[in-house]
Amino acid sequence: MTHRFPRVPAILAASALLLAACGSGFESEAPGSTPPGSADPGSSTDASTPAEPGADLTILIGSSGDAETNLVNDLVAEWSAESGVNAEVVVASDLNQQLSQGFSSNNPPDLFYLSTDQMAAYAATDSLEPYAESLSNADDFYPNLREAFTYDGQFMCAPKDFSTLALIINEDMWTDAGLTEDDIPTTWEELASVAEQLTTDERVGLAYGPEVQRIGVFMAEAGGAFIDDDGTTAVVDSPENAEALQYVKDQMAAGSFSYSSDLGAGWGGEAFGNGLAAMVIEGNWIAGAMTNDFPDVNYIVAELPEGPGGKGTIQYTNCWGMAALSDNIPGAISLVEHLTSTESQLAAAEAFGVMPSVASAAEEWKSAFPEFAAFIDGAEYAINLPSQPGTGDVIADFNSQLETLPATEPETILASVQQSLQAALDDQ
C-alpha cells in the first residue's frame, strides 16, 4: 500500500536536504554562569503549575505550513490561558536571519527554533539561557538528543522533535525481484546482495545523496566517529571510517550503489519516487514528499542494516532555544515544559508528522504510525554530526571530497578531513 504521513517541518527537512543537519541533525555545548535576571535551576515552573503572570513572551518559529503553525499557536494559547502570561507566535520568513537580527539589536525573541550548529554558535557567546536541565522532563529526552544540545557540559535547550535515517524500499520492485520480508537486509553483506538483485538497466539497487549526512551512516555502522568522547580530538581518519567508505566505494564500483546526483536526481527521495533507485537512505521527511509528489509509489521503511560496529544512523533535530536576555525566563521555562510534554509532542506528531523527542511518547507514536517505527527505533543508536563552531565548513569540505570517492582512496579523504576538523576543534 502507499503510505501517507503528515509533512515534516520545513526547517528539519531543509536542514537535512541542504546539508545543514538537524541537525542535523542530527551536534553540542554552554555558558558557565547564569546571566543576571535568569531563573535559578531550582525555580523552574512545572507545566502543571503555571508561572505567575510576568512579561509577555515572543516565540519565533520556522513553520512547514498551516498545520504546524496552527498547532504551535494552539499549544501556546492553551498555556497562556492557564498561566496568565501573554505570548505571541511569530512565523519567520528567514529564521536564521531574523534570529541573528534580534540578537544583534539586543531584542531577541524569548523562545525560538534552534538547530544544533546554531546552538553551539550562540552558546559560545553566552546568548542562550542554559535552562534544559531544570525541566521536570529533562531525563525523558533521548540521551543522544540531550548530547546534541549540550555545550561545555550544560544541557542547553530542550529538543523539540527529531528525525533519523532509515532504509526506504520500493515494495513493488522488491516483490518483482523475488524478494520477501525475510530478505530485508540486516547486515552489510545482505544489503550488498539485495542491492545487486534489485539493480537493472533502468535503476540502481541503492541510492543516497553525495554527502556525509547520508554516507555517514556507514561510518556509524562500522563503529567509527568524528570526534572523541572528550569533544577535543578529531578521530575521522580511523580504520573503521576507512572500512565504511571502502564498502561504499566497492558497491558503487559494482554498479549496485549510486549517488542520487549521478542518477540525475536532486536528492534521494526524487531518485526513489522516479523509480531510478529501488532503495534509498533517507529520513522521515521522505513520507511527505512521497504523499505529495509520488502518491502511487508503494514503499516500506526498515532499519538500516548493521555493520562491523553494530547498528548506526544519523539524527537531525532542533531545540527550543531561550534567550538569556528574556525578561520572563520562569515563564519561558514553563512554556517549554508544556510544548515538550508527551501530550503536546504527540499532538504535533499527529498534526504535521514529527517524531517526539521524549522517550515516553515512543510507544504511542509507533502505535499511531507502525509503518514508520524504524525511524524512531533508530533513536536508541543515532549519532550526531559535529556542530561545534567552525565544523560546518569542515562538513561542507568533506562533502566536496566525497563526490570524488569513486576515484579516490578513502584514507586520502579522511586524512584531509581529520586535519581540518582538528584545526576547527583547536580554535574553540
List the helices and strands and how they pair.
Layout: H1 10-17, E1 57-61, H2 66-83, E2 87-91, H3 95-104, E3 111-115, H4 116-123, H5 143-148, E4 150-151, E5 154-155, E6 158-170, H6 171-176, H7 188-198, E7 204-208, H8 212-221, H9 239-254, E8 257-259, H10 268-273, E9 277-283, H11 286-293, E10 299-302, E11 313-322, H12 329-339, H13 342-352, H14 362-368, H15 373-377, E12 382-383, H16 391-402, H17 410-426
Parallel strand pairs: 1-2, 1-3, 7-8, 7-9, 11-12
Antiparallel strand pairs: 3-11, 4-5, 6-9, 6-10, 6-11
Helix pairs in contact: 2-12, 2-13, 8-9, 16-17
Structure overview:
The chain is an alpha/beta fold and 428 residues long. The chain folds into two domains: 223 residues, D-Maltodextrin-Binding Protein, domain 2; 187 residues, 3-Layer(aba) Sandwich (D-Maltodextrin-Binding Protein, domain 2), CATH 3.40.190.10. Strands 1, 2, 3, 6, 7, 8, 9, 10, 11 and 12 form a ten-stranded mixed β-sheet that branches. Strands 4-5 form a two-stranded antiparallel ribbon. Strand 1, helix 2 and strand 2 form a beta-alpha-beta unit. The termini are far apart. 56% of the residues are buried. The N terminus is likely disordered.
